Amino acid sequence: MTIEMPARDVLPEKEEEAPRGKFLYAVILSDREREFGPIGLEGGRVYSIPYQDIAAVVSDYPVTEIKFLRKNLSPYHLTIRRVSQECTAIPAKFGQVANDADKVRRVLKANYDELKEELIRLRDKVEMGLKISWTVENVFEYVVEESSGLRHLRDRLLKSSASLTRQQRIDIGALVYDKLNEMKNAITEKAITLVQDSVEELEINQVTEEKMVMHGAFLVRKDRQNDFAASSQKVAELLGKDYVVKVDGPWAPFSFIRRIELFQVLNGEDEANEGNGEKAA
Q: If residue 187 lies in a helix (H) or strand (E), which one and from where to where?
């Protein structure tokens, strides 16, 4: 006699979960454990692991590769922004995971002097942005009208012919471009002169937009923010109606720090920079 047993569903084997490590957001100037709430990757609790008077800001996260996806980058940036509002902070390069809290402490100890020096340099300072743009409809026509030499050249050429030749347009275009950059540089120098007394350091970014005159980042002491705003208003008053001056911030001073890389950005085996103090921009 044969006995047939009912078929049973074969359950797939459960994937083994990766061990939980410590995802690094920043290093802060703090001598105690701090809680920042469930704002980390995957809603993880963000907290600090102190060593002496500095601390690593972390959340628990699997020791596995972390992809550059919005769902990961958004909480990473949010956490750094929140932490920077409360503490002096050096943001960590995205994707660093330590195996455990002991490894975090060992790396903080090995890199203590360099981290502490950078944190002291940034203490009580914020980043302010200053952008200057033209409001005119056509920048090149505006530059020609503002330059008597270019205006006279254009008018003289048009008097001799109803329209400009292709080569003449190229030649005038090159002259206008040179004058445009000359005006941008002059305005940038004026703006820096007016705000420099209220700033510690500055970074002037290369501008690529046609109507953008200047885009600068300024390291400002927290107690001088109002002075910087007042100086920026003087810039706007000096330039007049053809320009718009925009101030933003305060932000964490990202333009003035090197993002730390205490652990290898995880795409395989975790490896701490114990003893060499390596940092990555």
A: helix 166-195
